[in-house]
């Protein structure tokens, strides 16, 4: 494959879609192709994109409030001449898909979540208008595909389910040294429970905090980590302190890029999300044989089986989450057994290589030569967003 793929994504912060993008960049380059990344919000993954020699263009500092984002994406397409535009997440779908449509570039969407906003008429109509006629739509789980077919304006037979995949050689607990958590304030010998993800309403940190407040009374040797960054950081910290969770009990670490080392250091990984697609951190935690307690939302129950490879609890139920985590902490033997089964599940069903091959097959099938298109040497010359 020697195609030029333009990826459009909402941010370069650490998140599931963003980590998936890094893997796609590697695979495109390994196959002799070229890639460029257009984005809205900067983040620590920009350095990892740059390490790969991949160019980046920021479309806007103001998100969708800046109408010039569409113009910048149009100029990027004109100057860089991609063969395929592949967008991830809602802002990027709105701008990237419209720009590709206006430029007659083949366009693919990856749908990552069972987003509640799809039930809202105004937002749903705007999204449908921007994404109409997309050449391919990828759902990261069967439940995402079903949800979007019902609410998103895509025909069920026009959505291809390609589940997220994991590199098991990279996420290998036998070859991973656990991250030293002492610099973050974790005392030696403490049990460590963490929620990992963007600090946004989707991840429902309030439920995690309330369960942590309950657990801190029942299991006082436990330390709770909130790993990630996002707009709710100050609110989450204030809620934690209001619940009596001091900095010695609950620690906001910010972003941590060494994900496998972090996961290796945890006793329990928590996913408290109110809605999801198929979160990459779930697959990463399973590959690392972690004990996992997760809400049963989105595609998660299709992967994590309650009592077999982890614990599932209802969404927005702090007491149920606390009980699930407590059971894992109280019985290390069962926790280890569930972790082993979790890795076996990922190894059998969630191969990164299979995922990428199926995506590249879509690139091949949807590519069409652009009449009169000429390659421009070098990277695009674009104005920086104001």
From TrEMBL:
Enzyme Commission number(s) of this protein: 2.4.-.-
The protein, known as: Glycosyltransferase
Keyword flag Glycosyltransferase: yes
Organism the protein comes from: Alloyangia sp. H15
Sequence segments annotated as region (Disordered): 366-386
Pfam families cross-referenced by the UniProt entry: Glyco_trans_1_4, Glyco_transf_4
Gene3D superfamilies reported in the protein's UniProt record: Glycogen Phosphorylase B
Biased composition (Basic and acidic residues): 376-386
Enzyme category, top tier: transferase
UniProt-recorded Gene Ontology molecular function terms: glycosyltransferase activity
Lineage: Bacteria, Pseudomonadati, Pseudomonadota, Alphaproteobacteria, Rhodobacterales
Keywords, in A-Z order: Glycosyltransferase, Transferase
Top-rank lineage group of the source organism: Bacteria
UniProt xrefs under SUPFAM superfamilies: UDP-Glycosyltransferase/glycogen phosphorylase
Residue ranges constituting the Glycosyltransferase subfamily 4-like N-terminal domain according to the UniProt record: 14-169
InterPro entries with a match to the protein in the record: Glyco_trans_4-like_N (IPR028098)
């Amino acid at each position: 494959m020697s195609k030029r793929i333009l990826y459009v994504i909402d941010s370069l912060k650490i998140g599931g879609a963003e980590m998936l993008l890094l893997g796609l960049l590697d695979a495109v380059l390994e196959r002799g192709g070229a890639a460029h990344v257009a984005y809205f919000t900067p983040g620590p993954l920009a350095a990892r994109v740059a390490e790969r020699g991949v160019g980046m263009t920021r479309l806007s500092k103001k998100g969708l409030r800046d109408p010039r984002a569409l113009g910048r994406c149009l100029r990027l397409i004109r100057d860089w001449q991609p063969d395929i535009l592949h967008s991830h997440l809602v802002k990027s779908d709105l701008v990237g898909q419209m720009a590709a449509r206006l430029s007659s570039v083949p366009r693919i969407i990856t749908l990552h979540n069972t987003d509640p906003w799809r039930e809202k008429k105004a937002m749903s109509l705007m999204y449908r208008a921007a994404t109409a006629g997309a050449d391919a739509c990828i759902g990261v789980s069967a439940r995402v595909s079903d949800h979007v077919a019902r609410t998103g304006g895509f025909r069920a037979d026009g959505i291809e389910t390609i589940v997220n995949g994991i590199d098991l050689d990279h996420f290998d607990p036998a070859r991973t040294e656990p991250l030293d958590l002492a610099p973050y304030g974790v005392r030696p010998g403490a049990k460590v429970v963490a929620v990992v993800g963007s600090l946004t309403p989707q991840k429902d940190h309030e439920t995690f905090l309330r369960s942590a407040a309950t657990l801190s009374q029942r299991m006082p040797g436990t330390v709770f980590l909130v790993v990630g960054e996002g707009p709710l950081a100050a609110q989450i910290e204030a809620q934690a302190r209001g619940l009596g969770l001091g900095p010695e009990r609950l620690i906001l670490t910010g972003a941590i890029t060494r994900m496998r080392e972090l996961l290796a250091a945890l006793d329990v990984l928590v996913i408290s999300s109110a809605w999801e697609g198929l979160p990459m951190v779930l697959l990463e935690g399973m590959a690392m044989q972690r004990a996992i307690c997760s809400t049963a939302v989105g595609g998660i129950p299709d992967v994590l089986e309650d009592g077999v490879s982890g614990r599932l609890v209802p969404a927005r139920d702090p007491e149920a989450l606390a009980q699930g985590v407590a059971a894992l902490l109280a019985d290390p033997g069962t926790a280890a057994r569930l972790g082993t089964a979790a890795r076996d599940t990922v190894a059998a069903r969630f191969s990164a290589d299979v995922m990428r091959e199926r995506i590249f097959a879509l690139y091949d099938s949807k590519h069409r030569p652009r009449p009169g298109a000429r390659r421009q040497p070098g990277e695009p010359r674009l104005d920086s967003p104001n």
